[in-house]
């Protein structure tokens, strides 16, 4: 067996100096602070939004179809097992319609089209009420893309 030793002369003995020591925070940092979703270093944005308050705000809108008291219903794509999609993709449905939606009483293509419309309506209604924060919008923009591709047929 041949033993290989790595002796690299490319390792620095002293750290690199910054080219401009008076450099301030970059434009990306400034935009994050102004938009209200700045997170300190090491605090990554979670992959999926989980917000009980957001789900309550969605349910308080009332069913989009009947106007009756509603539950927050998640879209039914890109999930597995008991894992729900991002809470930014919730919309209000009455318990009976929620059950029908979840149990597959609607053809898949029709269900996806309805989900797209319902999520869009819910987003607009919450924006009008001032209950759609910059953080929810950030999660929404990330989570809606796969549904957009399915509905619009980009895949």
Question: Can you offer a commentary on this structure?
Answer:
The structure is a single chain. By secondary structure, this protein is mostly helical. It has a domain of about 110 residues. It contains five helices and two strands. Helix 4 runs antiparallel to helix 5. The chain is elongated.
Beta-strand share of residues: 5-15%
What's the total number of strands? 2
What would you call the structural class?
A: mainly alpha
Percent in helix: 40-55%
Radius of gyration (Å): 23 Å
Tally of alpha and pi helices: 5
Helix/strand order, N-terminal first: HHEEHHH
Strand order of the largest sheet: 1-2
Low-confidence stretches: none
Distance between the termini: 51 Å
**Mind summarizing the main beta sheet?**
2 strands, antiparallel
Mean pLDDT: 81
Shape: elongated
Biased composition (Polar residues): 1-12
Region (Disordered): 1-26
List keywords for this structure.
155 residues, mainly alpha, 2 strands, elongated
Short description:
This protein is mostly helical.
Ordered list of secondary-structure elements with their pairings:
Elements lengths: L26 H9 L16 H8 L11 E4 L15 E4 L1 H8 L5 H22 L4 H19 L3
């Amino acid at each position: 067996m041949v033993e290989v030793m790595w002796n690299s002369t490319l390792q620095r003995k002293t750290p690199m100096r910054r080219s401009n020591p008076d450099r301030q925070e970059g434009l990306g940092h400034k935009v994050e602070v102004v938009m209200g979703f700045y997170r300190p270093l090491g605090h990554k944005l979670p992959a999926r939004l989980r917000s009980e308050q957001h789900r309550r705000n969605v349910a308080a809108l009332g069913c989009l179809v009947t106007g009756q008291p509603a539950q927050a219903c998640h879209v039914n794509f890109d999930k597995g097992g008991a894992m729900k999609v991002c809470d930014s993709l919730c919309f209000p449905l009455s318990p009976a319609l929620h059950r029908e939606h979840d149990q597959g009483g609607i053809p898949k293509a029709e269900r996806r089209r309805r989900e797209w419309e319902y999520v869009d309506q819910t987003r607009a209604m919450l924006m009008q009420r001032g209950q759609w924060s910059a953080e929810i919008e950030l999660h929404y923009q990330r989570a809606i893309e796969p549904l957009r591709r399915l509905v619009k047929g980009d895949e």
